[in-house]
Amino acid sequence: MEENKKTTKKEGESKEKKSPSAIRGIIDGSLLTRKSFRGQLPFVFFLGMMAMLYISNRYHAEKLRRSVKETKTELSDLRAQSIFISAELMKLSRQTEVADEVKRKGLSIKESTVPPKKIVKSNFRRD
Q: Is 85:77 a contact under the CB 8 Å cutoff?
């Protein structure tokens, strides 16, 4: 019996030495030298590449989102500026505004007192 306990004790010790804890294996680097891990290296590299692609894709998407937001803001500002300039042009092109501007500059142009005439063209030709 005593001999049996010694052999089981030795087997238990050897099993403990062959399978150290995962954290200890990572810290001392013995995890990287195991044959089972070396067989999985292509898959680990693949996962690393996929993670880098995912991260770079995320950064690219954020950059595009910021660019689109800036462009929308710029478009909104330009639209407001366009509406403002159009309103100013409409105001300045009114007949009373034009007449006031002519008086202010002292030009010798006078307003027409005769209303414009409408010219009607008939569709029939007479030769």
A: no
